[in-house]
Write the structure tokens for this entry.
Amino acid sequence: MEFVDYYKVMGLDKSATAAQIKSAYKKLARKLHPDLNPDDKEANIKFQQLNEANAVLSDPEKKAKYDKYGKDWEHGEEYEKYQQSQQQQRQSYSGGGGNGFEDDFEGGDFSGFFESMFGQQSRSRTRAQYKGQDYTTTVALRLEDAYKTHKQTFTVNGKNIRITVPAGIADGQTIKLGGQGGPGSNGGPNGDVYITFTVNDTPQFKRVGNDLYTTKEIDIYTAVLGGDIFVTTMDGTIKLTVAAGTQNNIKVRLKGKGFPIYKKEGEFGNLFVNYQVTIPTNLTDRQKELFNELAAISKKD
């Protein structure tokens, strides 16, 4: 598989700070997002590479390994363990002349280790099995998409993967697809694919956990006298009765009208409706007269 330089993908160098990495990712994600480039395969591939790069470089531990080992960063710890075992063997055979272990790995030849382990035939009589590379990607969902179980296809390292996304998936939630990553070495298992979902609020709905929040404007007459209104939910429109004397910013709870609970069929959070009372403007002379009469009566009471 061709090596992808994560720093080059993000237009950065190794001295980039966490803030610079975050800023570069946001800028490029907006430019390359599949929703803005639906028919541009190259842009879609670059978007996947960007997500992979961000998943590694935004994680301090993964970034440190990547900076040290480059394309083989996921096997860096295995290499260090190998070096330690070689050192122990050298010590146990010291003083005996040629010990048979002073080979390509003397002096910390990292590339030689991986050529031996993953490319050329190892000098060792037994070849260790290694799990394939794990891949990471980010999938952006609309709130409406996350509300319902649906199938979705995305591309990781040029491979199309189709999955069923359960209703109620959360923003920032990561799921694992076992065995869908890179091929293993020497008969080892395939790597895995880790998908992180981003789910953004809409202008109408804000999601907090499994609950939804929305604002509904009501006129002053309905707030004072009460009456019926219609409120839009995620799955339709319902009629509500506003109590007389409703104050501005009062919230009402609609049980079970919120977001579906992840992998709990038929269970939902709540919808909270915040009433925003609107004050009339541009009153006619007659309307002003009536309000003055009402104010006068209120003062007498």
